Amino acid sequence: MIKTAIHNAENYADLRFSFSWEDERKNLDGLPGRAGLNMVHEAVDRHADGALCDHVALRWIRGDRAARDFTYHDLKVLSSQFANVLTALGISKGDTVFTLLGRVPELYITALGTLRKTAVYCPLFSVFGPEPVFQRLSKGKAKILVTTLEQYEKKIKGIVGMLPDLKHVLITDINLDLDDLVLSLPFLMNKMSGVFQIPPTSLEDPALLHFTSGTTGMPKGALHVHGAVLMHYVTGKYVLDFQPDDIFWCTADPGWVTGTSYGILAPLVNGVTNVVDEEEFDAARWYSILEEQKVTTWYTSPTAIRRLMRLNVKPREQYNLERLRLILSVGEPLHAEAVRWGEQTFGIPILDNWWQTETGGIMIANFPSLEVKPGSMGKPLPGIEAAIAEVTPDGIRMIAEPNVSGNLVLKKGWPSMFRTYLNEEERYQKCFRGEWYVTGDLARRDEEGYFWFVGRADDIIKTSGHMVGPFEVEKSLMSHHSVAEAAVIGKPDPLIGEMVKAFVVLKPGEDASAELRLDIMAHARKTLGPAVAPKEIAFVDSLPKTKSGKTLRRLLKARELGLPEGDLSTLEK
Ligand code: ATP
Ligand code: MG
Asked: Which ligand minimizes its atom distance to the CA of 221?
């Protein structure tokens, strides 16, 4: 076990015992003179109106690595101007405003300005093609879309006629309007005052619409409310362990919930500096950003970590990373080897944490002050009750014994719980059994209360009477010295129900020979036993992933079985 320094969540057990949402709520302001809570007041205005007025809130790093700073005051003025733009265009509370943008300042200003106006903000990945863009704009009844001229011409022009709710498209990089529908954002912004009083906002007012990653099927639109900001504050404080002069970098795109909850809100609510990089993954660039920006806290994904691990670079020898004190990961299982790699490479273990689009914020985490058990997701946040249960279509039975796999469930009522799946209320209701939200993931809890990811309920393989989680098998395959990545599916088999089939990406320089295949199989048999070890292994160059970096096992399976490939809107091309 590896122990890290002690910080905000100094004593987990005490904190869990004494924690109350009401007490934490006192650390937020609420709207001045009025009841209610607005995300942008907490994230921006209370700092802009106080001691952090000139503190850098957002540091935007352009493609050429030049940085542009926005203080809390700047964000207040710019987001007020955008809120005034919305008013001028007839947008009301609850209307939806979308962005189809890369990680550029306009995205952040739109997000904050929309929340200020009490409209609902929905970010889309800029790499989506016309069809997924249309699906989401139409499902979300978009009233306003903010995008670039290039994106407009490629993806929007041809579909505006099919979007009856769309009032305007605001283009970030033209200075004159194209027509009555397509307007210049800079032109509008320049005309607007930088003062906008936030209207009354209740805890339950809708704030954010986020589409899920589409790993298991068609993406669902999860709706979140302004009250969720309390979760962003609390998780920022205890998991990201924010300290006043922190420089935080979340590598996720806001098109994925991590890029909004933690790429925008949590750092701002906690008054730290939030670094945003416009570019995609590039190892040398990333290490240079960590060094140049003196990043203290870095939140990234297992996919990115695996890519860095493969490179064999020794960053601490080449870069000055002495300010980096916390590395965190979310989105997929983080293997024990990756945690240890962090320890060897950066001198700190990588802290895995678990949550979903639906939960709106981190639910289970490795805390800087707790022992890290490499490979575990950690322990539930204070204020969060997580349990393992057997779930049937109409009932639930809690599993108290440790180390038994079951459904991971969460007790309802945390501030950032989603409030519905857009236009799919019935599906939303089906996620609950009484007081419990059923996450769709399987996990187990050990004697010490640490949670271990087993797999997604949809991915579980039933073979020869065993229930096999693909993650266990993938973990074993990846512990073979020649394997870089692996994904496992169940393939229907008349004799044993389903047969375990593995897709393996080899490390650079490894030869995809028949001997190596046998060697990997033997290794898996030895660690897993013959019933669970894969019976077939295919060598592949890469695994299909979502844009948020998750392995699309359902696509591997569909291709293997010659079935329709399903929704591919989130597939990383
Ligand atoms: P969809 O619901 O559309 O199939 P998705 O579940 O991948 O897509 P997200 O909400 O982005 O969409 O991802 C949440 C899921 O990611 C979790 O339910 C879990 O399966 C996985 N996940 C997140 N963090 C971790 C983690 N630390 N360890 C293991 N799995 C994780
Ligand atoms: Mg999901």
From this structure: 1
Planar angle of CA 258, 264, 266, nearest 5 degrees: 80
Among all ligands shown, which has an atom nearest to the Cα of 441?
1
Which residue shows structure tokens 């569909």?
Answer: 558
Q: Is 209 helix (H, G, I), strand (E, B) or coil?
A: strand
* Positive or negative: CA dihedral 274, 277, 280, 286: negative
The ligand 1 atom at the shortest distance from the C-alpha of residue 219 is: 3
Q: Nearest Cα to 466, choosing from 439, 498, 437?
A: 498
Our measurement of the distance from residue 414's CA atom to the centroid of its chain's CA atoms, rounded to an integer in Å, reads 18
Q: Which atom of ligand 1 is nearest to the CA of 453?
A: 29
pLDDT (tens digit per residue) in 62-110? 999 999 999 999 999 999 999 999 999 999 999 999 999 999 999 999 9
Domains, the chain, ranges and CATH?
12-440 (3.40.50.12780), 461-561 (3.30.300.30)
Residue nearest to atom 16 of ligand 1 (CA): 331
CB 306 within 8 A of CB 314: no
CA 138 vs CA 93, 98, 142, 526: distances in Å: 19, 11, 7, 51
Pocket test residue of 550, 552, 553 for ligand 1, highest count of atoms within 8 A of CB: 550
> How many CB atoms are located within 10 Å of the residue 273 CB?
25
- Under DSSP, is residue 536 helix (H, G, I), strand (E, B) or coil? strand
pTM of the predicted protein model: 0.93
How far apart are the CA of 120 and the centre of ligand 2, in A?
21
Do residues 193 and 169 touch, judged by C-beta distance below 8 A? Answer: no
Between the alpha carbon of residue 492 and those of residues 190, 469, 483, 487, 557, the distances in Å are 61, 16, 25, 16, 10
Residue-wise pLDDT tens digits, 229-282 = 999 999 999 999 999 999 999 999 999 999 999 999 999 999 999 999 999 999
Quote the radius of gyration of the chain (alpha carbons, Å). Answer: 24
Ligand 1, CB cutoff 6 Å, lining residues: 212-217, 219-220, 256, 330-334, 352-354, 356-357, 377, 439, 441, 453, 456, 548, 550
The HSE-up count of residue 310 (CA atoms within 13 Å, CB side) is 19
Compute the distance between CA of residue 85 and CA of residue 109 in angstroms, rounded to an integer.
12
* CA-closest residue to ligand 1 atom 23: 331
Q: How many helices and strands (H and E) does the chain possess?
A: 20, 28
Angle at which helix 302-311 crosses helix 336-346, to 10 degrees, equals 60
Question: At residue 21, what is the residue type?
Answer: W
Task: Say which DSSP state 200 is in.
Answer: P
In DSSP terms, 248 is beta-bridged to: 274, 297
Three-state SS at 197: coil
